[in-house]
């Protein structure tokens, strides 16, 4: 009886899906399209066995190209709900390989709030799917730490921290003998100098402030690094100059608590 009833319910669900969803996810009214995608994300989370399959996922993938902001936003949020869990993310390999290029390109979405959620989505992918993002994919996100929108820059700052600057991640590869914060500043200097946007230290510091503020406020470690004279531990001139800029920007940020000139806080709606 139980099996019969389960089959009956699944048949009803399929009828609803094919009779309503398949037509309405392309509705002319954007709000209806957004609602469809939002609900599909909910079904996938609450009834993974039936709905978390490529046959259903493809609808979210296709809708990532929707012209309307709200629809794209709901797509990305639905995907966040799936990639935030390692178990559900494990079912997403085929979807990821098919739609990853689109997801990465959306960090430049013309709507800032969509771009912010996309960067958060890529951060979840970074954390819950091993090696899914290539270095080239990550290179699309890094420059966003210098953009004028603070929400987007902070999201990119967290991504950068998780991918390149987290000493624990680095320590997993090689034993760290010089303290976590020293490792952090070594990684940060390498990124700052290689990205060749030297005059923007204040923007980089502001982007990392929410996720790595306590590390950036470790004046002792910065001072010790700058005073280091030995040829092995000491810094090159270029690194010293960059570290002084980072120190100055961190002090200003700690004292004023304001983003740098030209970077706007999101307007409260």
From TrEMBL:
Q: Which UniProt keywords apply?
A: Nucleus
Which cellular components does GO assign to this protein? chromatin; meiotic cohesin complex; nucleus
Note the PROSITE patterns from the entry: SCD (PS51425)
The record's annotation in Gene3D superfamilies points to: Leucine-rich Repeat Variant
Q: Which SUPFAM superfamilies match?
A: ARM repeat
**All copies of domain SCD, residue ranges:** 21-106
GO terms assigned for molecular function: chromatin binding
Answer whether the UniProt record assigns the keyword Transmembrane helix to this protein: no
Carries keyword Nucleus? yes
Q: Which GO biological-process labels does this protein carry?
A: establishment of meiotic sister chromatid cohesion
Q: Please give the family membership noted in the entry.
A: Belongs to the SCC3 family.
According to UniProt, the name of this protein is: STAG3 protein
The organism is: Sagittarius serpentarius (Secretary bird)
